[in-house]
Amino acid sequence: MGTEERAPGRLRVAVAAPLSEENCARILALEPRIDLVVDQAPLPPMRWPADFAGDPSWHRTPAQQQAYDAALDSADALYGIPDVDPAALARTVRANRGLRWVHTMAAGGGSQVKAARLTADELERVLFTTSAGVHGQPLAEFAVFGVLAGAKGLPA
Fold this sequence. Notes:
The protein is globular. The chain has a single domain, classed as Rossmann fold (3-Layer(aba) Sandwich), CATH 3.40.50. Strands 2-1-3-4-5 form a five-stranded parallel beta sheet, with helices on both faces. The protein is built from six helices and five strands; from the N terminus they run E-H-E-H-E-H-E-H-H-E-H. Helix 3 (86-95) crosses helix 4. It is α/β, with parallel strands linked by helices.
């Protein structure tokens, strides 16, 4: 899979991690050349915001797993590392010869790619990007807030 014909100028992006309907709509509004493949049903429920791994007690049915894999294996690009799992990433890269790009928002994306033990050819074929640094300013502000809160006795 992943090698079927695409309309020129289109990018098929499979959502492999939780992504809100609002953000899906924003992506499509800002970049109409994307065919966004979104099905939240085969994704584990998040226990808190940015819990990309989701509830560990949740498991896909065999039909959900088949549909999830088929979506990933038909994409030009992935939003998220499948199941936040290096083995699932390796399976997807090897099953989908048309995969060109994987983007992860979650911290640790680089270590997951390394742990997937992809070959040099696979790493050459697939571009990996992250959103590293996007939260730098708010985290710095939070750190300063924590220091000031402690210095001023805010908890008391």
